[in-house]
Structures are given as structure tokens and as C-alpha cells.
Amino acid sequence: MPSNHNSIKTRFTYRFARSLKKLNKNRPASQSMKETYRRYHMIRVASYASMASAVGPKRAWSRAVLWKIRNRTLHRTLMKKSRIHVLRTRKVSGNPNDLRKLVPGGEGMDFCRLLNETAHYIKCLRTQVQIMKNIVDHCSN
Amino acid sequence: MTFEKSAMDPELKKRIIEDLDRVFLDSSLRLQGGLSYSFEVASYSLNVEMDIAGKDATTEPEKGNENPINYHSTHMSSNWPLNDNNITNTSVGIIPTGNSIVESSACSSASMADSFCPPIWDQPVSGQSLGYCDVNVQNNVRTSDSFGPTSASTGWIPDAMLRGGTFLPTVPGMLPQSLPHFPADSGFIERAARFSCFSGGNLGDMTNSFSIPENLNSYSRVLASMQGQHEVFAGDGTKQHGMQSRKHEMNTTESSKEASLPLEYGTEGSPLKNEKMRESLPCSHDEAKRGVGMLANDSDEAEFSSRGDQEELEGSPGLSFGKRLGSKKRKRTEQNRELNENNRALEQSAETAKVDAEIQHKGDLNPASTSMPAGKHGKQGSQGSDLPKEEYIRVRARRGQATNSHSLAERLRREKISERMKFLQDLVPGCSKVTGKAVMLDEIINYVQSLQRQVEFLSMKLATVNPRLNFNIEGLLTKDIIQSRIGPSSSLAFPPDMTLPYPPLHQTPPGLIQPGLSGLGNSSNALRRSTNSPFTAAFREPTSHVPSVWEDELHNFVQMGINSSAPLSSQDLSGSLPPGHMKAEP
């Protein structure tokens, strides 16, 4: 495939790599689980943030992601409380609601637009996963 | 050059005529923003009715515009008591500044209109005036032939401007009796209407304030009706194709009609049309907007190129949707082009359409316009019957289907949704044989969940694996990362992925991973599924059901740590891991 120099993939890679570098710079020597978990969480957020900022404000889901990250402190406390509950009730049927919860920003959309955003979101997620896999491969080699 | 209503020399007249022509053609180039140039012309014509007494057109510096002629125009516009503010603001604000020719001709036209209207008010249209106007027409045609159609929109616009320019600069200094009454009602109104067509959003403000008193004569009423109809498409300023089709509507409305009726219809037609148009194009509105803008210029290639760079990922949905929309709109513009020709023929024969027919047209238009068949076949099948029956239908009800506006909108919505579902079906692997919206949605949800879980997993890996590497990634590795599509771990090969967690687990100090894993294991009961062994669960269904395999892999991840770490340091497990951290939400 032809390499698009300004594609979402490239942008995401650069941003994510930069954030990883930053995260690894001030890495304490302690390898506690706490630290690992924190790093894991930061890396995950960085990955989503990089992808959302690479996509830009064009898409509703990327805007929602960036907005969420901006209000992260508030969200963290809220999410912690709701996480248990959501995990226990994971197999809920009722598709549009599930999809709305999965796709960021999907709450306030009509179904047609939700499908549109889902399609784009799936593509970006795929790219994200692929790049992260490549990074892991490179790191572990 | 100060403009006054006193008698003017013939040279001046000629100059004004030439100026006007140049201006009209010039402004036709800049019509995209909805220039109020034409709007001004129409507004002045309307103004003039109120200005019966032949006010002295002295210049008045209302705004800081250097050209005194411009002041004249603003003064003129402010004469009208009804929509004083609207017209003044719009006309002054929208005049293309810096173009003295434009302003001069605007003012000249205003003065012309001013000198016109009183006689029309008082006297009926006479054959004399017709003759006079024809002479003018000829003159102007000669002078402005050289310019040719320059506008980016349909080709007849310069023609219209031309003709519009002709009668406006007629005899400014003539006395009322000898003035050529607009052959007016028909010719002038058409053209004024056509001009006003171009000022999209501005008319919206203006038309609402058109409260036309009953005692206005037919001329003013007709003008008002034109304005009212402009509002119909003035409402959706971005839908320029709508404007084009409506212009034809204008062309056919000549002679006396009731002002109120078209106005009312216009007001109710436009919001209805607007909301339906908006509803019908919610998802790909961006593409549609660009597509419409392009289509107004009849450039299909530009349309596709604008859509082509919207999505950067391959197989962009926007492009495919936009293409489909583009095909719809292309058909519409073809229809419109045919309608253009038809209407020009009609207009040239000076046919006058009746109010009833007009309303019927509009009545047919609204419900039908909401149904845009998503497939091309819908349009093709019914396109043959479009022209003889309607003049400006954009979409058609399919054969043998209900034409109720609600059902049409519903059908349109359903078609859109099915379109997108089909696209998603291609995206999500393993969904080709799945039929039905519900199952498809389930699959989509599962896929999204699995992707999100993959991201979490990989970020966990990165958190544990990375410390070993000094990140030169930004330099060389980025290109490798981007281009290495099929590394040692392919995307869908689960067994290799299963093995990957193992080497890092064994290489890194056990103290690091295992407490983490057992912490993961402690995290929630939902993750603990009954799997007999860590690996058989994964290899049981290697590719069939994507999400469950990933979940099982996570279980493996967890249970590996639990199994291999007999002596657990449970002190680290206390409360550090919030229970639901594996939730698939960013």
C-alpha cells in the first residue's frame, strides 16, 4: 500500500511514540504492581488520546475521547465506581445502547450517525492495535 | 459621481448601462457567498414602490463608504419603512466593497428603479414601454456580449444578469409618462427574482418583514411574491441546487398573483424542506455540503476530489456514501438542467403560470422531495415521468410505494441505515453470512469490544515490556512500525499471540509480573470464566469467535500468573488495582 505521509496512521504513530518516550523517561526503578498498573493505565490513555488527536475534531468520537481525557480527574472517580457494575452486567442485550456505550460520544446521536461513527471508530481502533502490536514486537525483539 | 434624479445626459446613461452590464457580469463571478447584489436590485425595486413621491435622491453618508453612490443606495433602501433595518444592513453590508463599479451600478440601478416605479404605480403597462425596453435590451446585448457567461454556476445567469441590466438603466431622467413600464411585470420580476435568487441567507431576514399592505397594486404584489418565494430557498443557503430549481419556479410566476399565498407557502415550505433535507442527510452532512457546493458549479470531478481527501484511512465510508449522494445529486442537476431549458422556452413565450398550478407544484414538491431513494434505480425508474409532470422535483417516490411524506422519510432513513450496515459488514471480519440487523449489531459490538480489549492488552504489555528499551522509536523505528504490517504476531493469528505473553513473562523478573497478574485475577469475578486449562481455552476456538478468545487470553494471562506463582506476595495486592480496570472503555 502506498505510504501516506500525513495519514492517520503516521500521525498516530508519532504521537504515541512520543508519549511512550515521555512515559518511559521518568520511570522509577520500582517495579511494583502499582507502578505497572499506573503505567498501563497511562499508556492506554495515551494510546487513545494519540489516536483521537490524530483523527482530529472531525469525528464525534474523537472529540468525545479528547473531551473525556480533558476531564479525566472527574471521570476517573466516576468511572471507578461504575466499573464494577458494568463488568458484572456485561452481557446486556439491547444493541443500540451497547454500541452507544462502546463508541465514545455515541450517547447523543441518532442511529444512522452512530453507525457512521462506529465504522470510522473501528477502522481507527484497528490501526491502533496494529501499530501497538508493531511497537511491542520491536520492543521485545 | 453624485447621483441625482435630475435629468441625465444620454452619455451618462450609456455609461451607466455599460457599467451595469460589467457589474452584473462581474458580480456573477462572486455569487457563491450569496451576494446581495441581485438582492439589492430587488430590494430597490421594492423600495421604490413605497417611494412614490419621487424622493430626491441626495447622497447621504450613512456608512463610511467612500463612494457617494453607495450612500445613495443605502439612502434608498432606508426609505422603505417596513424593513428599514434589514435592507439597510444587508444591502450595505453585502455590497462588495472596493469595487466602485459595483457600487456605482448598484446605485444607478437603484435610481433607475426609482425612476421606474412611480409610473408603474400610476399607469398600466403599455405597449410603448415594451418597445422602449426592447431597444434597451438590444443595446445592452450588444455591449455585453463580449463578456459571455463567466459565472461558475449555471450558464444562464449572465444571460439573466444581462437582461436584468438592460431595463434597469432605462431612461433615468425621463418623466413618468414616458417611462417604459416594466414590460414589466413579467420581465422585470423574473429577472429581479433571478437576481434575488443568489443571495441565499440574507433574504431570510428580509422576507419576514415583508408585510405587504392590501392596497399595493399588482406590481408590488408580484414583487413581494417573488421575494416570498425566494425565502423558500433562502432558508437553506447551502442547498444551492435547491436554489436553481426554485429559480425556474420564479420564471413561471408572472403577472399578478396573491402575495400572501406564496409567502405563506414559502415560509412553511422552507422549514419543512429544511428539516427534511437535514434529516435525510444527517450522517454524511459534511460530504453532502461539500458535494452540494460543488454541484452548484456543476463540477462533478471537483465533487469527487473533495470527497476523496476527506477520509484518510483506506476504504473511507465517507467516500462511498458521498459517491452515492453524489450520484443522487448528479441526477438532480441533470434534471435541473433540463428544467432550465424547458423553463427558458416557457419564459420566452411569455407564459404565465397560475397560482393554483404553482401551489400544486409546490405541494407535490414537498412530500416528494423528502424521499431520496438511496439506490440509483429508484431515480432512474421514475425519472422518465419527472419532467412532464413536475418541474423541480428532486426525489421521487418509487413505483407502487406510498407517497406519504412520513413513510417516505422513514424509507429513506431505513435505506441509509441498511447502507451503513452493509459497510460495517465489510469492516467486521466474519460477518459476510450474517443477515439481519440485530445479529449484525451484536457482531459489531463484539468486534468493537474485542478491539478495545486488544488495546488494553497491548498497553499492558507495553507497560511491562518497555522499560528495557531506550526509545529511539521516534527516529528509525517509526517507519518500521508503520510499515511492518505482518510482524511476528499477525492480527488474527491467535496462537502466536497466545505465546507472546509467555516470553516476556519469563524474561522479566517474576516478582513484577505475577503480582500484577494475580492482581488482575483478583480484579473481578467476571473475568474468571471456567476454563479447564489456560491454553485449551484459547486454542479451543482459534478463529471462530473473536471476542471470547481474547477474553480467554486475558484469563490465561491471569491464570498463568496465578498458576506459576506459588508464593504470592499478597501485600502488594491490597487495594492498588481498582477492580474494573479491564473495562473496555478508554
From TrEMBL, chain A:
Q: Name one GO cellular component term.
A: nucleus
Question: Is Transcription regulation one of the keywords?
Answer: yes
Alphabetical list of InterPro entries matching this protein: bHLH_AtIBH1-like, IBH1-like, IBH1_N
Matches recorded under CDD domains: bHLH_AtIBH1_like
Subcellular compartments? Nucleus
Q: Which UniProt keywords apply?
A: Nucleus, Transcription, Transcription regulation
- Specify whether S-adenosyl-L-methionine is a keyword of the entry: no
Bilayer-spanning residue ranges: none
Enumerate the spans annotated as IBH1-like N-terminal domain: 6-72
What Pfam family does this protein match (any one)? IBH1_N
Name of this chain's protein: Transcription factor IBH1
State the organism of origin. Abeliophyllum distichum
Automatic annotation (TrEMBL), chain B:
Q: Which domain of life is it from?
A: Eukaryota
The protein's name: Transcription factor bHLH
List all membrane-crossing ranges: none
Q: Any idea where the BHLH domain is?
A: 401-451
The protein's matches in SUPFAM superfamilies, at most eight in alphabetical order, are given as: HLH, helix-loop-helix DNA-binding domain (SSF47459)
- Region of interest (Disordered), residue spans: 236-282, 298-388
Fetch the PANTHER family from UniProt: BHLH TRANSCRIPTION FACTOR, STEROL REGULATORY ELEMENT-BINDING PROTEIN
Matches recorded under Pfam families = HLH
A GO BP term, please?
regulation of DNA-templated transcription
Instruction: Specify the species.
Output: Abeliophyllum distichum
GO cellular component, as recorded: nucleus
Q: Tell me the SMART domains matching this sequence.
A: HLH
Against InterPro entries, the record matches this protein to:
bHLH_dom, bHLH_ZIP_TF, HLH_DNA-bd_sf
Q: Kindly state which keywords UniProt assigns to this record, in alphabetical order.
A: Nucleus, Transcription, Transcription regulation
Where in or outside the cell it occurs: the entry states:
Nucleus
Q: Where is the sequence biased in composition, kind Basic and acidic residues?
A: 246-257, 273-282, 353-364
